[in-house]
Fold each of these.
Amino acid sequence: MDTSQSARDGATAPTVRRYGDTALLVELATLDDVIALYGTLTADPVPGVTDLLPAARTLLIRCDSPARLGQVETAVRAARPAASRPAPAGEVTIPVVYDGADLAEVAKLTGLSERDVVAAHTGTPWTVAFCGFAPGFGYLAGGDPRLVVPRRPEPRVRVPAGSVALAAEFSAVYPRESPGGWRLIGRTALAVWDLAADPPALLRPGVRVRFTEVRDG
Amino acid sequence: MGDPRLLEVLASGPMTTVQDLGRPGHGHLGVGRSGAADRGSLRLANRLLANPEGAAALEVTLGGLRVTAHGDLLVALTGAPCPATVTCRDGGKRQLGHNAVEPLPDGATLRLGVPGRGLRTYLAVRGGIDLTPVLGSLATDTLAGLGPPRPVQGSLLPVGPPPARFPTLDLAPVADPPCGDVLLHVIAGPRDDWFAAGALDRLCAEPYLVTTDSDRVGMRLCGPALERARTGELPSEGMVPGALQVPPSGQPTLFLADHPLTGGYPVIAVVCSRDVDRAAQARPGQRVRFRLI
C-alpha cells in the first residue's frame, strides 16, 4: 500500500470504543466505511477475533478472551480499509409480487405512484450491508434514495415469511414469520434462510441483490 | 456395546434446553452465539466427566427435570445446587452430590428439585448429548428459534460415545451461587456519553431488583432510573452478553446468552465477562449490585 493511501485513511480514523472486556465497537462515518472495514477484517482476519458484526454505522468486534483485547484493538486501529468498494460477494435475483399491505402507504409517503415505487425498487441494485434482527435478515442498502420511509408507528405482531419490506434507507426480505415494523411492499417465494443450505443465509453482507417483478408468487 | 445409551425425559420442569458453548462466528448471518447461560458451570460439568468442555448438556431452569437412564451413564450436576434424587430399578433411593461425578445406572430415574439458590442447573452426561448440530452447535437459541428440539416428556436424548480420557476428580470444590445480593463488575460504555452526568454513579449506588420479566435473552432490572442526556435512538448496533441496555424508561436490561444481535437503545455499561455467569444465576426477586472497574 502506498503512503498517500495510508495518510488519507488516517485523516478519517474511526472511533474505537471498548465494549466490555472482550469486544470493541468501531464507529464509522458512513455505511460504506463499515462495509469497507468489514471487508478488510474478513479478508485479513485478526487473530483472536471470533465475531464481526457490521451494522449501520458501527462494526462490533468480539474476541475470544479479555487478554486478547489490547492486541486486537491495535490491529484494528492499524487496519487500512481499501478506498474502493469490495467486490460483490455474489449476486441474487429475487422475484417479487408487489402486492404488499403497505404499498399504497409507501406511495403516499414517497410521493410516487405505486407503479413508480415498484420501478424504483426493481430499478437499482441493492447490496446486503449487514444482517440482524433474525437469522438471515439482511439489511439491503444502496437502493433508490426516493424509497426512504420511516418504520410503521406500531409494529405488526405477525409478518409472513417472504415479505419484502422497506424502512429508512434499507430494504429486506423477512426470512420467516416474525413480528416487524417495516413497510411491506410485496412478497417473494424465494427462501432467503435455509438451514439445509451452506451457508444458510442467501443475503450475506456484500451480496448484490436485484428485485424483479413477477405476476404470481 | 449393547443398546444405545440415552436419557429419556419424563418431565422437563419449567424450562429445560440443550446447550453447549454456542455457535460463534455467525454474527454476520444474523445468528448469535447463544449456548449455556452460565458457561463456567457447563464447562465444569464437562471437565468433571472428562468430556470436551463444550459437549452438549441440559440447562435446567428452577429444577423439575426427571430423566431415566437407558444404559449405564456417568453424570455431573453443576450450577444451581438442587435436591437430586436417584431411584434405582430395585426401588433404592439415593441423593446425588453437586459438582461431582455420579453414576446413573441403567433404568435409574433422576429427579431434580427446585434449587435453594441460583437459577440454572447443568446436567451433563459422559459422552455428551449427541443430537444433530444446527450450524455447528447444539445450543438452543430461544430468541432466534435455532437449535435442537426442546426436551419434553417422552424425548429420547442419545448419549455420545465416552471420550478416551477418564475422569480424574470425584468432586470439584466450587462456591455455590450467592443467595443475597449478587455483585457484578461493570465496565463503562460504550454509550455512557448518552446519559446524564452521574448516571454511572447511580447505576452503582443502589442495588437493582431482578424482575420476573427475565429469561435467557436478558434480565429486566428495577431500580434507580438512569436518565438520558440525549433522546432518540442510535442506529442499531451490535450487542454482547452482559450489556446493560437502557430503554427510555431508564430501567436497564442485562443481556444474557440469547440477546438480540443488535439494538437501538444505548448501552451504559457492560458486565465483565467473568461475571456474566454469576448474573445468569440471579433469580427473579434477588438483587444485583454493580461496581465499576
Amino acid sequence: MELLNLYQNNYLVVFVFLCLGILLPVVALFFAKLLRPSNPFDEKLTTYESGNEPFHDARVQFNVRYYIFALLFVIFDVETVFLYPWAVAYEKLGIFALIEMSIFVFMLLIGLAYAWKKKVLKWI
Amino acid sequence: MMQDLLHSEPGLLNFGIVFAGAVLLLFVILGFVTYGILAERKVLGFMQSRHGPNQVGGPWGLLQTVADVLKLLLKEDTIPKLADRPIYIIAPVIAFAPSFMVMAVVPLTDKLQFADVGVGLLYYIAVTGLTTIGMLMGGWASNNKFALLGGMRAAAQMISYEIPLVMSVVGIVLLTGSMNLNDIVAAQENLWYIIMQPIAFIVFFIAATAELNRVPFDLAEAENELIAGFHVEYSGFRWAMFMLAEYVYMFAMASLITVLFLGGWLPLFSFLDFIPGAVWFALKFSAVIWVLIWFRATFPRMRPDQLMEMCWKVLLPIAIANIFLTAIVKEILNLF
C-alpha cells in the first residue's frame, strides 16, 4: 500500500508539472493578448523571405538523409532501452550477462559499420 | 516534508500542496532565466572586452531582461497568412511544457525535491525528446523556407545527439545499479562520477551542449544562414516561449549534470558539510552554466556535416566502448 501511494504520488507530481507547463504559456499569451496591439494587413502577413517576394510553397521534397538518420535513431534508441535494465540488474546477473550483451551490441555495431561503409553517415 | 507527502494517501490536498510548490519552483526558474540571460550577456561582454548591458537598472544592467520581457509582452503578434494556424499556435506550448516537466524528477537537495521516480533518468531523457516535436511543428507550420530547414536540422541534430547522451549515462547506471537520481547522488558519497567516469562526462557534456542547441552546435538557429531557424516567423510572446524553453532546458540540464557527475548537493570534502547542501548545489550548478557560456564565447559554429559525422562516428563508438570498459573494470574489481 505504501509503495502504491508513493507510485501514485510520484506521477501525480509529474501531472502537476505537466499542467503548469501548459498553463504558463496559455496564461502568458492570454495576458499578452490583452496588452499587445493588433493591426494586421496583407503585406504584414506575408511570409518572411529576407525582403524578396516569397515564391513557391516552402513544403518541398526534402533530402532523404533526414529520414535515414531518423531510422538509425530508432534502432539505437531501442538498443538503449534494452541497455538500461541490463545496467540496473548487472550486479545480480554477473559476467554471463556481460558476454551476452557484448554479442548483442557487436551485432548492432556491424549494422553501424555497414551504414558507415555505405556512406549513409556522410552528410553532404 | 516532501518524502512524507509522497508516502501519504494521494488526494486533493496533496495536489494543492504540490501545485503550490511547483508554482514556486516555476518562479525560481523564471528568476534564473531572467538573470541567466543577463549573466550570459555580461560574461560574453567581458570575454570580448565589452561592457555588456549597463544602462537599465544600474551599472550592472540588473533590469535589462525585465525590460526585454515587458517589451516582448507589448509586441504585436503576427501569424503569416500561409501558416498552418492551429499547429502554429500550439507549437510553442509543446516546446515549452516538457522543459518544465523534466524538473519534476531532478532533486535539488535531499529535502528540496518533487517526485522520487524510480526511473528518474529514463523519464528525463524520454520527456526531453518531446521538445523536438514542438520545434519541428513550429518550423513546418510557419510555411517558411528558413523555418522548415531550421526545424529539420533541429530534429536531425537532437535525435542524433540523444543517442550518445543516453549511452554515456549507462556507465553510471551500471555503477549505481539504479536509475533513481537520489540513489545516483548517494552513490557519489566517496568519489564523484566525474572522476570515476571521465569519458562519460566528456561525451555527455558535448551531447548536452548539442541537445541544448547552444554554440558551437546551434545550427538549428544559425543567425547568419537561417536568420533564426525554426522560429523565424514567430514574434512577441510566442517567440519568447521558444526562448524560455531553451533557457529552462539549460537550467534542467545543468541540474542534471550536477546530479549525475558532480555529486549533487554533497560537499566537496566531508569536513565541509556544515555548509548547507543547497549552497553546494548552487555552486556546482553555476559552474556548469558558466562553462556553457564560456563555450559560447570560445568555439566557432560547426558545419552541419561535421556535426552529424562527429555524433555517429566519434561520440557513439566512444560511448559504447565506455559502457563495456565500465562493466569489465567492475568485474575485475569484484574479483579482488
